[in-house]
Amino acid sequence: MSLVCDMAYFLDLFTPETWDAFRKQGATVSGFGERHLATARDRVKPGDILLCYMVRLARRCGALEVKSSAFTDSTPIFTDPDPYIIRFKVNPLVLLDLDRSPPMLAAAIWDNLDETKGIAKGTRGWGMNFRGSLRLISPADGTFLLQLLQKQRDGQTAYPLTERDQRHLAVKRKVHTLTGQVEVEVPEKGDDQEEVVEHGLDPLERSIETESAGRDEASVRQSIQIQAQIAEIGAKMGFRIWVPPADRPRVLSVVQAAHRGAFLEVLPLNYDENTLDTIRQIDVLWLKGRSMARAFEVEHTTAIYSGILRMADLLALQPNMQIRLHIVAPEERREKVLREIKRPVFSLLDHGPLYEKCTFLSYDSVQSISHEKHLTHMSDTILDEYEEHAEEG
């Protein structure tokens, strides 16, 4: 193994399916979505280490040494068609089977990483730092993880898959379409009523609470606060803001007076009435001129279909529309949102899978963005650092 002393460590996300495909193809090329082009080109260099993280199972599964600069190649490796076209040649240092991959919640990892030690397991939002490929990992954490993975490669301690792990492995399906394979999720019976657990936690580690009327009211109040924060972030960045008339008075009561002038009372859009009726109901829109830049649906109730359906309706009515779509929900609802986005009904749309255009943003992420000191000088691309794509989860 030839490693340079100034190497950097980066996060490399895999699903169980892409990990299997990667290994079957020889484990010599790792790929990332097009949104990672700038980071891949400008920050990752030969000799750096990609530390592999298994989403859905929250396990550390491997380590790869970067052997080339970033290049573009659409030859199918991970799926067909393959969205992971920003690639590096790699040397596999550690490749672990799923039941040999150490879970993040294992004390050997949790209690020794700077990012998690001292934090109670299951603390809300702990998994936010493991949601984006090519995120830089500190030298201390990177060195620790590489050594741990090398030790595991040599010792092969067993980490049996939990019931929850098995459930996540069972729901993925591939469907053949005229344009290639599309991945879908078929939720199990009871998923719609089940409270979603924190990413990486066994269901036994959390109790399931029944939502009371009082809790529903609190959720609605919280959703208005989040809706207002999203609107205010956009206003600070120079966008004009649309909020449905029914929500506007409550949202405006929370927004600072200096930003209320950015709110629209009439949409300046030229679409047919069906499309406009759909657009008018979206929780928050950011607009530049006569174009929509981003759309947000805030979900807080047990059933999270309404916002996803609205996004799917919008794309069905205007399949060529260039707009960024986001489902915003509490962190604990992350897994459910990502599963629902990949249901067959949303994955088999004529214009392509919804999950290619619609991402998840947690309430915590919105609040973090709202606390940025220089939003008025920032681009909306800051959302790219916080959003999560279903294709990676």
Defining key terms:
single chain, 393 residues, alpha+beta, ph1033 like fold, 2 domains, seven-stranded mixed sheet, six-stranded mixed sheet, 12 helices, 15 strands, globular
Description:
- The chain has 393 residues and is of the alpha+beta class.
- It has 2 domains: 9-155, ph1033 like domains (ph1033 like fold); 203-392, no CATH class.
- It has 12 helices and 15 strands.
- The strands form 3 sheets. Strands 1, 2, 3, 4, 5, 6 and 7 form a 7-stranded mixed β-sheet that branches. A 6-stranded mixed β-sheet has the order 10-11-12-13-14-15, with helices on both faces. A two-stranded antiparallel ribbon has the order 8-9.
- A hairpin with a 4-residue loop joins strand 3 and strand 4 (59-66).
- The chain is globular, with a radius of gyration of 21 Å.
